[in-house]
Write a structure and sequence with these properties.
110 residues; alpha+beta; Glutamine Phosphoribosylpyrophosphate, subunit 1, domain 1; 2 helices; EgtC-like; glutamine amidotransferase
């Protein structure tokens, strides 16, 4: 996908967000796009890199999982949510910021 396509998508999402709050996750099968414009309740990003060690416990659920049992040694993982789901180091997605994720690469706009 060309950079101009990312720019057009970003401009369209900014235009749509002028009508109210908007959090968007979408994919075209190759890229994952995340856009946040929801004042007071944005989006959060968590990245897991190999080697996956330890356990992850969901904050508001009685659920725990060993990352090493569900991810291969060379596999990356990314989680985008409207609130922090674990006590790990989540990154706040800035208002009117678009993330483009493909394989192990992240790019932002906004």
């Amino acid at each position: 996908m060309q950079e101009s396509s990312f720019t057009k998508l970003y401009q369209l999402l900014c235009e749509l967000s002028d009508y109210g709050t908007l959090n968007v996750l979408m994919s075209n099968g190759r890229y994952l796009f995340a856009y946040s414009h929801y004042p007071g309740k944005g989006m959060w990003l968590l990245k897991h890199h190999p080697l996956h060690k330890g356990r992850v416990r969901l904050i508001d659920e009685d659920f725990e999982v060993s990352i090493g049992k569900v991810k291969a040694e060379d596999e990356y993982a990314c989680l985008v949510a409207t609130k922090k789901l674990t006590d790990e180091d989540w990154k706040k997605i800035r208002e009117k910021e678009t993330l483009h994720l493909q394989r192990r690469r992240f790019a932002t706009q906004g």
